[in-house]
Amino acid sequence: MTLYEYLLKPVKSIRKNLHIRCLSEIVKQFSKFSSRDELIEYSQRPIEYCYGNRMIEACSPNNSTPINLIKLASDLRNQLLVRIAHCIHHFQSLPFLPAANPTLLSLHERYLKLFEKLTFFSMIKTNEDEEKFFNLINMFILQSNDIIGHLSIGCREAEKHFKSYKIMEEFLDNVLQNRLSMRLLADHYLELHKQQKKKDFNNNWRGAICMNFSPAKAVQQCIDDVSSICFETYSVVPYVQIENCMHKPLPYFPSVVEYILRELLKNSMRAIVEYNKVLLGNMQHVKNFFNENRQDALCKIFITSDPNDEHFTISIQDQGGGIDEINETLFRYMFTGDIKEKEEEETNVIADFQERMIQSSQQMYGHGIGLPICRLYAQSFGGSLSLRQVARIGVDVYLRLVNKTSMTAVQRKLGRRYQRYISARQTFEDKEDDPKDIWERIIKMSDVLSAMAIDIQTNDIFPLYGLNNIARNDLNIFCREYIEMAIDFSLNIDPTDEVKNLRIRSQEREIVIAYDDGTIFVIIQSLSKEKNTVLPTFSLDM
Q: Start and end of every Branched-chain alpha-ketoacid dehydrogenase kinase/Pyruvate dehydrogenase kinase N-terminal domain (predicted)?
């Protein structure tokens, strides 16, 4: 009996000393990484969640600049350390029994080891340092292909020991979000390094970004791949029709789009085959039916893009009979329609990107993580994934992703404003600054903060630049910290109990910060002479 099985076993009559010894072993494993100053420091730093679209924007012809691999490696090291520290924090925040699960515990330790290896590269100053860092990142990619698979296995094993589904969902959302960003950043750096060293400057590729990405070609490639999987599984393949209304290429990460499309196509083709097998009785009749009706596609894919919209849409409409479950259930982790799930849930678990594609070739069945991961990845790029069921006919799936080539000047300005926010935020993280300079920086940042506060209300900037609810919460937290700093500084200047509000004035706006029953209300007022209007108000619970 393993230690984990022992902990899960109902306690009837046990030897007290043995039970204490078992618990102490778990505590020892957790304590290995609970006292590192660097870990605490990096886990408290914010994560820039708009990485994907910003990377694409940076690689556009208008913004392309010579690549400094040493600077790029140094930036990547810092971003990976922050994300790994956040992942470790999420593991440490799990309830005891899920945290003690051997599979999840091994992942916990792997993240710690990677964090320790990255801290070794304290400074990357020379080409030799950068080359060693490249080898480390290359090894990191090779050794981390199975992380998502182990997450799926570990959470399925410990699913009933989470206090609630919400806890497991938040844990997986956070770890998978960081996982995607680390993989994209690392892949992008590795490809840029190879292109620089080989002096292979291909106009079609810049790092891991295809500068002339064609959604239609990606869809066709995914259809071919999934069709071969479907034929290996069922010996039949339903006909899929493409209607492409988007002919202009755009810069994008092909791996992300293909990853999502393969998962969606597997679901549609499987539904079509199995639905018709039930209707017609056996697979030979299904094969004859598909051959006789090749002109009537049972699965149609539409690719559209509105010139006035910042998104392009890939919709998949299948005639697979629909699904009995409600839409939100389909996006729950660990939900699968596979009847063989109980027997095969721990074998061939889907990993990530390339490894996922290899393992997907072995079966059409799901493992309960496909759709939620696809939706999470779509949201990471400022898009969405939604389903619409047509009763007794099939399911329509809509994948919307940001089209960077259709962004307006206003939208680009909002993006630059967010970058100002990130830069201003970093200046506040230096704790050794002279307190006399704090107030000056607060005044300078007031316009940035007020503009971002408006964006919080409209929510326009967040879907566009890949910021999900997690990032919105992070921004709210920073606003609160910023306001607390301003108020503390004001109270230090004039320490009276009667100070109930604070005004911060810039050229265009005035921010009024007021207390009320433990809540801080922030009121932004325009100072423009043309229209003296009160802008949206938002509150922050203290």
A: 61-210
Mark whether 137 and 261 lie in a shared domain: no
Asked if 528 and 420 sit in the same domain, the reply is yes
Euclidean distance between CA atoms 67 and 207, whole angstroms: 10
Amino acid, res. 2: T
CA dist., res. 388 & res. 330, Å (int): 12
pTM of the predicted model as reported, rounded to 2 decimal places: 0.68
pLDDT tens for 177-191 read: 889 889 989 999 999
| The domain boundary residue, chosen from 143, 178, 206 | 206
Q: Other C-beta atoms within 10 Å of 255: how many?
A: 18
The whole domain housing 54 covers 32-206
Q: Which of 267-276, 389-398, 400-409 has the lowest mean pLDDT?
A: 400-409
Token pair 């609630």 is found at 164
Inside any domain, residue 14: no
- Asked whether the beta carbons of 476 and 540 are under 8 A apart, the reply is yes
Do 536 and 454 contact (CB within 8 A), yes or no? Answer: yes
Q: Give the closest residue to 99 by CA, choosing from 111, 114, 116.
A: 111
Residues 440 and 485 in one domain: yes
pLDDT band at 469 (very low <50, low <70, confident <90, very high): very low
CA distance 148 to 374: 13
The pLDDT-based confidence of 52 (bands split at 50, 70, 90) is low
Residue ranges of alpha helices (H) inside 93-126 are 96-99, 102-120
Last residue of a domain, one of 349, 380, 406: 406
- 85 close to 149: Cβ distance less than 8 angstroms: no
> Are residue 357 and residue 482 in the same domain, yes or no?
no
HEC assignment per residue over 274-322? HHHHHHHCCHHHHHHHHHHCCCCCCEEEEEEECCCCCEEEEEEEECCCC
Cα–Cα distance, 270 to 70 (Å, whole number): 47
Specify whether the backbone of 507 is left (phi greater than 0), alpha (psi in -120 to 50) or beta.
alpha
The end-to-end CA distance of the chain, in Å, is 48
Burial grade of 111 (CB within 10 A; 0-12, 13-18, 19 or more)? buried
Identify whether residues 490 and 352 lie together within a single domain: no
Structure confidence at residue 295 as a pLDDT band (50, 70, 90): confident
Instruction: Give the closest residue to 97 by CA, choosing from 1, 30, 40.
Output: 30
Domain CATH number, residue 359 = 3.30.565.10
SS3 call for 510: strand
Q: What is the pLDDT of residue 237?
A: 92
Domain count, the chain: 3
Q: Is residue 397 part of a domain?
A: yes
